[in-house]
Amino acid sequence: MNLTANAQAGFLSSFGYAPTGVWSAPGRANLIGEHTDYNNGFVLPFGINFRTYAAVSLRTDRICKVVSEIDSRVYEISLDDPKPTGLDWALYPLGVAWVMRDKATSGFDCYITSDVPIGAGLSSSAAIESSMASALNELWGAGLSRKELALIGQQAENQVVGAPTGIMDQTASMMAQNDAAVLIDCQSLEITVVDLGLSKHDLVVAVIDTQVSHSHAHGGYGSRRTSCEVGAKELGVSSLRELSLSDLPRAQSQLDDETFRRVRHIITENQRVLDTLIALREGHLASLGRLLLESHASMRDDFEISVAELDLAVETAMATGAIGARMTGGGFGGAAIAIIHKDKLAELANNCELAFAKAGFKAPRVFSVTPSEGAKREL
Ligand code: ADP
Ligand code: MG
């Protein structure tokens, strides 16, 4: 299926004329570094070969209309309206337009199609924001950088959708490159592209989508964020980034048990991201695998954002011979990733299906993802 052609055709049938262009942006998987982004720490995501496509044309008036393949309704705002509310999924693309409104030359029509699984922890939200922001940047002649467009996507999600997410997803979706992960220092927003080198070992990144859906806007994401803010404040730092492993004893003595465990996850996870860079650079697959497992254990036990389905996915991947596995994304559902030999992918899918059925869970979806490039114009 060619999604660029899909987007063009959907635009034509929705609006009765051809779009000026089609822009796409990938979802992302996070290799390691979870909930560290809003603590000014380190994350190591990569773009995936599942993308959202926005077919867009400017209009002559100030109206902005969006249609998605997942919904028959047309949502619209005027550029002169106050901040949009209550528009369901359309708050993501229209939120981007609203945040960029001072760059606007006119309204637009937009049709969206995507193969990024929604709510699976693979950031369909950043994919839709980044494709929209890229389209408007070009059509409005805004001249914004990729980093600026990532910030606009985050602002749309924070201020318009109301989900208090960090900068990782949009940065990955805007800055990703083929066969590589993107180290993001969320304090300086400095980006380093890191070669993954998995293919030379015939390894792939498998995604085990538990099909347990999550919602950042209404889930426990916000309460974890609050715990981190409380922990930082009580320890006298502006963000948990400023702390390292040597601060753990002090944190334990000063904080209540739950806040301490939240803080410990962030401190140890930042260190694991840095250790992962060394493991990748040195080609130490065993260390990489161990770091992924330690990350999962920390999210399960200290940050308490895993669910039984994600734990089972990780266990099953390891029992199938993965070198490492962990839940990815914000948690409370979504997907796990596993690094595994490409010849074992089918066995992994089979084992997950059996294990999930035995546990009485909904059947998971297992597929591999390829590290792919960031937002771009397709047409
Ligand atoms: P994730 O980013 O992990 O997929 P989120 O809850 O952050 O999950 O974002 C998912 C939401 O983004 C959907 O519920 C929907 O509102 C919006 N969205 C994502 N992709 C699309 C799409 N192709 N069409 C319409 N809305 C979408
Ligand atoms: Mg999201």
Which terms summarize this structure?
binds magnesium ion, four-stranded antiparallel β-sheet, 379 residues, six-stranded mixed β-sheet, Ribosomal Protein S5, domain 2, Alpha-Beta Plaits, alpha+beta
Describe the structure.
The chain has 379 residues and is an alpha+beta fold. It folds into two domains: 3-193, 2-Layer Sandwich (Ribosomal Protein S5, domain 2); 196-369, Alpha-Beta Plaits (2-Layer Sandwich). Helices cover 40% and strands 21% of the residues. The chain is built from eleven helices and 13 strands. It has helices at residues 3-15, 91-99, 124-139, 146-161, 168-175, 221-234, 248-254, 257-282, 285-301, 308-319, 345-359; strands at residues 21-30, 42-43, 45-58, 63-68, 75-78, 108-114, 180-185, 190-195, 203-209, 324-328, 335-341, 365-369, 376-377. A six-stranded mixed β-sheet has the order 5-4-6-3-1-13, sandwiched between helices. Helix 2 (91-99) crosses helix 3, helix 3 (124-139) packs across helix 4 (146-161) and helix 6 (221-234) packs across helix 8 (257-282). The longest helix is centred in the C-terminal third of the chain and has 26 residues, at 257-282. The radius of gyration is 21 Å and the shape is globular. The relative contact order is 0.17. The model has no long low-confidence stretch (mean pLDDT 96). The chain binds adenosine-5'-diphosphate and magnesium ion. Magnesium ion binds next to loops.
